[in-house]
Amino acid sequence: MAFKCAVVGAAGGIGQPLSLLLKNDPLVKELSVFDVIPLAAGVAADLSHINTGAKVTSHHGFDGADIRAALTGCDVVVIPAGVPRKPGMTRDDLFKINAGIIKGIAEAVADACPKAMVCVISNPVNSTVPIFAGVLKAKGCFDEKRLFGVSTLDIVRANTFVAELKGLNVTDVNVPVIGGHSGVTIVPLLSRTTPACEFTQEEAEKLTHRIQNAGTEVVEAKAGAGSATLSMAFAGARFANSVMKAMNGEDITECAYVYSSIQDGVSFFSTEISLGKEGISKINPIGKVSDFEQKNIDIATDALKANIAAGENFLSA
């Protein structure tokens, strides 16, 4: 079975390559391209010339009717909309702008496709996902199994960096990354890497620091011209594909930032989840970790408390 997917924010730096990758995904039968700016029509026209099976439709505008038209009938909604990170800007700095954007999108999803699988990329994910959940709750349609903060880029980076260090085939490497999706909340579980690897304490510390700060690495390398767009598009497309495979009955495991009680003290946490036809079928336990990783989990949990509170306070203000 193939599905109707929407990309909200399709004209942006992440949205365009993400839309291209989804247009090339055989599990996508229709790709609904939305942005507030008219460039969305050009992106859709460009994509429509590609000889793959997905039909492309275009929607743009600030009128709420435009986004609702784009979302109607969608099975999967992927949301990279928002302002990108600039040099010197943390993900928290993005909050004031992107919180309002994500709130409006959540309201549209609640009205147009409340049963869709929703994949939130818009930063800061640690706060935007709680905002999205709060809006859906207020609208009476929150399903915790169908809302995901896409943290896949952290796994993609961890796999790449470990493969480079250990001389492994990167396609064989998998490093679970838990916690959240910014800075110290990103906790790679290097001790659970497959295939099994041994890391010195120095290697573990350096790898963890690089994975946590890889976004800044890209921002600085682009010298003010952008943030991580191509790698994020790849990660977003990978996660959307995993969701669709699971909807077709495959047993899929991914890490994602979701509504969960897996970690004491926080209501959202990224960990390994099993995906099924209805979304999350199981939130897998964190399992055995090293002392170093446990210390990082504790640090991440404290930071997540503030991030989640920021999202919840935005809605109650």
Automatic annotation (TrEMBL):
Its EC number is 1.1.1.37. NAD(+) binds at G9, A10, A11, G12, G13, I14, G15, D35, N98, I121, S122, N123, M232. Coiled coil: none annotated. Homodimer. It comes from Sphaeroforma arctica JP610. Substrate binds at R85, R91, N123, R157. This is malate dehydrogenase. Residues 4-149 form the Lactate/malate dehydrogenase N-terminal domain. Belongs to the LDH/MDH superfamily. MDH type 1 family. It is an enzyme of class 1 (oxidoreductase).
